[in-house]
Write a structure and sequence with these properties.
single chain, 326 residues, alpha/beta, Rossmann fold, 2 domains, 7-stranded mixed β-sheet, 4-stranded parallel β-sheet, 11 helices, 18% strand, elongated
Length: 326
């Protein structure tokens, strides 16, 4: 067993639904194990500025259902420098914090790994990103909620598309990964799903839509991942419009609405499991590892593996999307 007595807890990078559920679980699990917990406000920037607050069981009451993060989040350019990390280490030493739980994405884990190499601060990471783009877990915290939010919005757009015989291009989040697009597209019955992991052929898309039109389809929805190589929804809609001006074409960008809102039951449970596992990992002397969920079981994977191994889309879901979009 480790000698850790005081855990620092932070959220970094983009917020994701379920972070508060994880914060709650970390605090209560740590206290139950006799540890002290300090929350770090605004991620690594808070480490540098010494913006800490002691957390107890009551500090995290009534937050499991809330979106965002009560600890706030930020992307710290200063933490990328050695001088910034030295300041952070001094603050941790002054508060006698000897281990970290960091909730975030690949940048968060790179920072934690470098910090341990230079100053010996152990950490366990929790994958908090709606993009679901980290290896070492089947689901990242917030992904399920983001998909449900997108599907709800697309369902509403479908009503309008059907009422006016329109072609809608709906852009969802995902700079480098199309998991949200793929899941939301299948669940909303989209006619096509465009994402970075698959090549986008605009003439082929127009032909696909024309076949559907010939078979009696009067409205269509195309899901576009923001990181698609052919461009965002506005650009792709323009390209399609130039080839098929007969369509009444509209564009909707869902944007950051996908990040907010109350977390789904799945993300509340996932955040709770991840939070408890993170504390248990530190107590078991683990460091530079991310908590993950594979086949329903908690596992730990090294930061380097999670960051460097690409988590691509499920080939079976890609196959299914092609079958069901006719």
């Amino acid at each position: 067993m480790t000698s850790i007595k005081h855990i620092g807890l932070l959220t970094s990078g983009g917020d994701s639904p379920g972070m508060n559920a994880c914060i709650r679980a970390v605090v209560r699990s740590a206290i139950g194990s006799g540890l002290k917990v300090s929350g770090v406000n605004r991620g690594y920037q808070g480490l540098i500025e010494g913006d800490f607050q002691e957390l107890n069981a009551r500090s995290v009451s009534n937050i499991i259902q809330r979106g965002g993060t009560i600890l706030k989040s930020a992307r710290s350019q200063e933490f990328l420098t050695l001088a910034g990390r030295e300041r952070a280490y001094k603050n941790l030493s002054n508060h006698e914090i000897d281990g970290l739980v960091v909730i975030g994405g690949d940048g968060t884990f790179r920072g934690a790994e470098q910090f341990r190499k230079e100053f010996g601060i152990r950490s366990v990471g929790v994958p908090g990103t709606i993009d679901n783009d980290l290896s070492g877990t089947e689901y990242t915290l917030g992904f399920d909620t983001a998909v449900n939010t997108a599907v709800d919005a697309i369902d509403r757009i479908r009503d309008t598309a059907a009422s006016h015989d329109r072609l809608f291009f709906v852009e969802v989040m995902g700079r480098h990964a199309g998991h949200i697009a793929l899941h939301a597209g299948i669940c909303s019955g989209a006619e096509a799903i465009l994402m970075p992991e698959t090549p986008t052929d605009i003439p082929a898309l127009v032909n696909h839509l024309a076949i559907g039109r010939a078979n009696g389809k009067t409205s269509n929805i195309v899901i576009v991942c923001e990181g698609d190589e052919a461009g965002g929804a506005f650009s792709i809609a323009q390209q399609v419009r130039s080839l098929a001006p007969e369509y009444d074409t509209k564009v909707t960008v869902l944007g950051h609405v996908q990040r907010g809102g109350a977390p789904s039951a799945f993300d509340r449970l996932l955040g709770t499991r991840f939070g408890v596992a993170a504390v248990e990992g530190l107590l078991d002397s683990r460091t530079d590892v991310m908590v993950g969920l594979i086949h329903g079981k908690i596992i730990y994977s090294s930061y380097s593996d999670c960051i460097n191994e690409q988590h691509g889309p499920d080939p079976e879901l890609l196959r299914i999307s092609g079958i069901t979009s006719i």
